[in-house]
What we know:
Keywords: Signal. The chain folds into three domains: 30-178; 180-237, Roll (Membrane-bound Lytic Murein Transglycosylase D, Chain A), CATH 3.10.350; 242-283, LysM domain (Membrane-bound Lytic Murein Transglycosylase D, Chain A, Roll), CATH 3.10.350.10.
Amino acid sequence: MTIKKGLTASVLATTLLFSGAAALPASITASAAVQVSKYQTELNTFASHYAKIFRTVEAYTKQLDAAKTEEQAINIHDKYMTYFSSALDEDAKFVKYNPEIQQLDEYIYNSLVEMFNFELYTIHYLNGELSKAAYDKEYKSMTKYVDSQDALFKKAAAAYKTKHKITFSNDMLYLLDAEQSETVKTAVYTVKKGDNLYRIAIKYKTTVAALKKLNNLKSESLKIGQKLKVPAAASSTVKSSTYTVKKGDTLYRISKTVNVSVSDLKKLNNMKSDRIYVGQVLKIKK
C-alpha cells in the first residue's frame, strides 16, 4: 500500500508570504532577541531530524549494495522499509513549531513520502511485477514532484534565513544540497539501458539535484551512452555488456549490481527459471 502525499500534521493558520522582512531596529529588545534565538533553535532541531532520516536512508542503500546474498539483501531491505515507514509516522513532530517551520516540514515530508512510494514501485519492478513503461512513468512522476517540493523548500528556507537573521547549520546545508564542495573530484559514468538519475544518485551516494547541478542538466532525461560526472569516491561503473556468475550470486543480487530487472535478465538470456551456475556468462545489455 502506498502512502498518500500531503498527510502531514502541518495546518497553517495563515497564508505564508516568502518575502524578506525588514531588518530589526537597533533598539531591539531582550524579548525580541529571545524570539530570534527561538527561530534558530527550531530550525536547527528541524534540520537535525530530517538530516538523520536522509543519512539513515543513505546508510541502508550502502548496506544493500554490500549485501552478499539475496537473503541478506531482503533482510536489509525489510529493515530499511520498516525504518522508512516509521520515520514517516513522525509527521506530527513539528506541529507546535512556528508556521514557517511547519511549511518547510510539509515540503520535505511530502518528498520523503514520494521517495518511499517509489521504493515500493522499484520492488515490484525488480520482481517483474511492473513493466518498464509503468516503472518509467512512476519515476518521472516522482522526480517531477520531488523537484517541485525541493524548489519550494529552498525558496522558503532562504526567506526564513533572511527574515529571521539566522544561520544554516551543517544539517540544514545538507538538506539544501549545499554541503558538498564545488571542487569535489569526479569520475565519468556512462548511462546504460534502464538507468535514471534517481538510481545513479543512490549508486554514487549523492542526490538527483547534485547530479543535475554537476552536469548542468535541465531535466531528468538521459540517453544511453550519455556521459555523466559522478563523485569519484563512489565510482563503480559497470562497463561490460556481460556478467560472469560467481559463487553466492543470485539473479536478484545480479539485477541490483547491474541495474537490470530480474525479468529483463531472464529475457536477455532466454532463461526459463532463476537457476544459474558459477562461471555462467550472462548478457546484461542488448
